[in-house]
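Aim 2 progress update. The chain analyzed this quarter is reproduced below.
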Amino acid sequence: MRLIVILSLFFVNFSFSQISGNLERSYSNNLPDRFIIDNESLRGHIFNGVPASIRNGEYSRRALNFAHSNSLFISELISGGTVYSDWDELEDYLNKILKMVMPTELQKDSMIHAYIIRDGSYNAFMTASGHTFIHVGLIAEMQDESTLAGVLSHELAHYYLKHSLNRFMAEEAGEFDQGIISTGAVRKNFSVNQELQADSLAAIWVQRAGYSVQGLISGFKNMYRIERNILKKRRLDWTLKERTHPLSEKRLSQLYKILSQIGNANGKSFIISESMFNRLKEEVKPEVLKSLINDFDYYECIEKSFKYHLFDPDNPTYVYYLMESIRRNAYLNVDIWKELFITNLYYDSVMVNGETHKEEMTDHLFKKFDLDIISIDPSDGVKLKARFYWRDKPKFTTYEEAYNFFFVVGQALKCKECVLSNALSYTSIKDKAIRNKFLEEYIKFDSTLHNEYAKCLLKDSINKSLPNNKIIAFNDLSLRIEQGYEKIRLPDKKHLFKGMIDSVMKTSQNRTAYFLPEYKFQNLNNFNDLKALQRFSIMTTISKGEKTELHILDPKYWDLFYRLKVNEVEFVFPRYYEVRAKDVSLAGYQKVIDTDVSSVLGKTKQTKYFDVLISSVREIENAAMKIRHYQGENKLNDKENTSDQITKIIKYELSIKESRAAEQDKKFRYNNNR
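Predicted structure tokens:
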């Protein structure tokens, strides 16, 4: 039971400018043609990029395996909804920087291109085709354009030096398999050396392009702060160990040596546009927070949104995400309300009997300004607008106090969604009148995100307003051929699995089938929401306190059900593989990837297996929120048509899933009525 917020509290040190904020980007509902990559062309590009000595020599099969597996991963990633397909300005800006640092030898490579990924973590990666992927979480932490140039140069260096190919070939050759003790060390050293090589080459390219190499240094200092933050959260670790990447101190040490040799004369922080960089950096921040909260990374969302808030305290977007990440975290674990805001995850170094130990922090965040917790570039300290948190008496110390405080701030900033967040924070039956008061306030606003939801919640018709229908969302059939020890994926390019779905649906009642590989072309926004719901369906949700209800955890899922006119969404993950005789030749591999899938799904004499995982998420009165069903793999009869057998198994497993759901609902009602 939460304390009732008192609206007159905490009003000090703010001068509100009534910024509207940007909780939601306006996303395109169509996937552009350029995001549909032909797998065979991509495979050919990667294969032709392999040195001829490998491509035409004794390791030609490995080279084809490398090209084939990477082409499937890359093409599916680009068209899979994770990549922003409608942020042309940011994408063009990144690619202009990429072109600036690109060496002459790579400028004719038409595949090299940078994409932005909906991911709030600090990361970027290059693929074997030259496609580069930059997380929005990384862009938000960049100090200037030269820092972005450093990241892009580093990733480009990996491609130029063919690091992914070299690692793949070493893995395939078993070069890392030198015994239980040495395997990890050999693999680690191999990867660490690749990173240091890419750093060295990136420094040269950055300088040659006219950018300041200080940008590359800033990037590694960002990583150093991330490492310090990680250590502060670990009770038993005093130092981090190198795994796939060298620690930032080693990278900085090497970079300073390189700088002493090449110099950094007249390097610029900006070449393309300083104003565009600054504007786009601010535009990605709401996307970072949205990504983190959608991925259930609530603690990280709290820390990021508070950090952004310190620089821009009048921005209601950051206040909203602070409230929502606190609320959802505490909804899953009611004890969090009383814990110290942010510092509950951290440890202090203390002396005990002359020895240094780590103990849980007992001080609140505002006792001192700790750069290992508030992870910012010290040079940005002058830009911090909300230093008053540390100057004056603490405005709050616990998560509950913080939540109440930020609700007051959100109301002053006229943040409509903060009102709904506050309403949903009152989950106890005793607090229903308080909740309804805020719901009534919310539905009076124009242009809110969840108006219909709030109306139904106010009328206690959340479940009744959803018809008793189901969507069954089929993922593409995962096809693999095991040729000896090697597992080779086959894409179902003709979507033959869709024909099996039609057969399954002939006997299904109250179910509408969605074939996700095609549905993304019909409604990209619904597709992305379904994919998020699918991830949630297979997650283990642990809650402490009241039972978790989907619509309270995140109203957007109820909105999705309401739009689709259902009260349950089922997800089907089908997998087929067959075993063939060992063949280590290039021709043998080529024969597999040239296989006509329709022949695989017909009558074959191979040993073949099929299994299916079914998960569902539901908004049904007195019923379990999630159901998962998996019974293991089925060995198929080689004398019967494979497609027919798969269809029968899916029908059977759906019926078993229904029986399991009925059993779980019975237990659910029993436990809640005791």
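The chain has a mean pLDDT of 90. Residues 284-458 form one domain. These observations will guide the mutagenesis experiments scheduled for the next reporting period.
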